[in-house]
Design brief:
Strand content: 25-35%
Structural class: alpha+beta
Number of strands: 7
Number of helices: 4
Shape: globular
Helix content: 25-40%
Largest sheet: 7 strands, mixed
């Protein structure tokens, strides 16, 4: 598996992010969907990576800089048909490594409360990410949980 910085130009990435957005809108009410579209992921404060096995896209993830000491995990996704191959774990480990190298003190994320998000929450917890209150621009939301880790 190769993880690389991604310029968001390839059709496979577009398809995966479209799958991600559709799935988030199917699971959560519109006001609780915080997934980013292509334009938002191209902002200067976001780094985006993809994981590949040769030509096969295994997943993606992003790191948004909230401030010079705090980052946010965004757009973690593996295609439905390629789950359980370790891509999510590898991408999250890569994001944590980059956040540490940037000297962030904290890395946080928002995810859903529904059962469909339980595997993601377990993945985050396996890295030592713990539940916390809202951060950044987020507010309390019964459809969101907030998690963080000290780096």
């Amino acid at each position: 598996m190769k993880i690389e910085i991604d310029d968001l130009s390839r059709p496979a990435i577009h398809a995966l992010l479209n799958e991600h957005l559709q799935n988030m809108h199917a699971l959560s009410p519109p006001e609780s969907v915080h997934a980013l579209d292509l334009a938002a992921l191209r902002r200067h404060d976001i780094s985006f990576w993809s994981a590949w096995d040769g030509p096969l896209l295994l997943g993606c993830g992003a790191l948004k800089e909230l401030d010079h000491r705090h980052g946010e995990v965004k757009s973690m996704r593996t295609p439905e048909r390629h789950r359980r191959r370790g891509a999510g774990r590898a991408i999250l480990a890569h994001i944590i490594e980059v956040a540490s190298s940037r000297d962030y003190a904290r890395l946080s994320l928002e995810t859903g409360t529904m059962d469909a998000f339980e595997p993601a929450r377990r993945l985050y917890q396996s890295f030592g990410v713990i539940y916390c209150g809202p951060f950044g621009h987020y507010t309390e939301d019964p459809n969101s949980v907030f998690m963080t880790m000290r780096l």
